[in-house]
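Today's session is about reading a structure prediction critically. Students often jump straight to the picture, but the first step is always the sequence itself: look for stretches that repeat, for charged clusters, for runs of hydrophobic residues. Only then move on to the predicted structure, which in these notes is written as discrete structure tokens rather than atom positions. Here is the chain we will use throughout the hour.
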Amino acid sequence: MAELTLKVGDKAPEFKATIETGEEISLSDYQGKKVVLYFYPKDNTPGCTLQACNLRDNYDTLLKEGYVVLGVSQDTEKKHQNFIKKFDLPFPLIADTDHVVHNLYGVWQEKKMYGRTYMGTVRTTFVIDEKGIIEEIIAKVKTKEHTEQILKN
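Below is the predicted structure for this chain, in token form.
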């Protein structure tokens, strides 16, 4: 697996992307807030659901700490709408179907499973400070304890 090219202390790459509502957002929309930008492989899969629900269950705490949460996967807006509705997720999900945001953050990489090689999302979370600087990169995400990993700073 390739190494991430971004490091703690780097300026987080600016992006424009569409969320589940069809609305376009950009990272700069959140300047002055801390951003949890989390990349995950696929809506409605066991690990991704555990991760999203952990963030949902701790959302009030994250808000109190000044964080905005943005999820990113290659799923479509429609799939994101269903995922949000099914699990009552309180944060937007970016539909990065063309992998533009994935590539900016270096998380669209070659993966291997069951002897087969394919391109996919490397589950990674970037914690970005109020000035747009990467404060932390969580590469070994614990889906059931993800909020604790974010707040341990």
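Discussion point for the tutorial: The domain at 34-151 is CATH 3.40.30.10 (Glutaredoxin).
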